[in-house]
Structure formats: structure tokens, C-alpha cells
Amino acid sequence: MDRIIEDCDSLLSSFNALLRISALESGSRPPVHAEVDLSALLGDVVELYEPVANERNIALQLSLAGGLSCPGDTDLLFQMSANLLDNAIKYTPDGGRIEVGLSRQPEGNEIVVADSGPGIDPLDRKNVFRRFFRVESSRGEQPGHGLGLSLVQAIVHYHAGRILLDDNEPGLRVEVILPAVDQPG
């Protein structure tokens, strides 16, 4: 019975992610223009995941510039950040490290989540944003349905941002650039 409940929860989670992606991509979600304190938001996300990282002896290194805000939807930006950190923890080996950073760059606010996991092969990097795509090496080893990075990308685009995947040597480095509050759209 517990397995059935887990499967139903997983299916419901996937369905909700698909609905969210669809709403963001279709433009049917009304724009929210609140000022989101990215420093505080990332601090909250890290605080939420810190016990999981500590349990696996993963070092979380933070470098968050204060006072950086983005016009947008707090809930969506929280989900985006949580998905990125969740993936980093999921794929970082016990005893590894994850860096979470926030800085102001000429093109906007840059959020970085970099881990010491296996990374993603350069040939797979564009595909990981496709719905239901999973890197071959992670199938069966890690839970998931291949919707997390698709949702992250939809949230980034909804906020007129961009996302880049790069090598962290070892691991994956995810860079998200979002507009700053004082930056023209």
C-alpha cells in the first residue's frame, strides 16, 4: 500500500510540474512584478536543504551578495532554486561539495549552483531541458521523471533570464542570469 501511495505522489508531482511548465510556456500565467530579494530567497533554500547535505557530509559553500533583487514571482524563483540545489545534492557523492553563489554581473543577477558530482556530458546538455529526458547514467540510480530542469528553464525564461550549463571540473556548474530590479527589461 505504501508503494502505491508513493507512486501516486510521484505521478501527481509530475502532473503538477507539467501543468506549471505548460502555463509558463503558454503565457497563460499572469505576470507578477514583485521585487524578490534573491539573497534572502537563496538563503532560505539553502537552509531547507542543509540537513540533507549535512547527513551526506556534503559541504555547502555560500557566497551570496546582499541587496540583489529581481522582478518576479517569489514562489517560482524559490522552486527554480530548490530544483537546482536538489539536483546538486542528488548527484553529488557523499563527502562532496556544492557552491551556491549570487553576484551582480553587467547583464543582471547571476545565481550559480556548482557541484562536485559526475556532471553532464556536453552532448546531453541541451537535451536535459527537454521534458522527460534523463541522462542515461542516472536512469534507475536516481529518482525523478526528467521534468526538473525543464521546469527550471521555463521559470528562467518566464523571468526573461537565461540558463547555462558548464563543467565544474569535476561536476556541473549551473549559471542563471536574471534581470536586476534597477535594470531595464
TrEMBL record:
Subcellular location: Membrane
EC number: 2.7.13.3
GO molecular function: protein histidine kinase activity
InterPro entries: HATPase_C_sf, HATPase_dom, His_kinase_dom, Sig_transdc_His_kin-like_C, TCS_sensor_his_kinase
Catalytic activity from the UniProt record: ATP + protein L-histidine = ADP + protein N-phospho-L-histidine
Residue ranges of every copy of the Histidine kinase domain listed in the record: 1-182
GO biological-process terms attached to the record: phosphorelay signal transduction system
Family matches, as SMART domains: HATPase_c (SM00387)
Lineage: Bacteria, Pseudomonadati, Pseudomonadota, Gammaproteobacteria, Cellvibrionales
Record protein name field: histidine kinase
UniProt organism field: Haliea salexigens
Top enzyme category: transferase
Main location: membrane
UniProt keyword annotations, A-Z: Kinase, Membrane, Phosphoprotein, Transferase, Transmembrane, Transmembrane helix
One Gene Ontology cellular component: plasma membrane
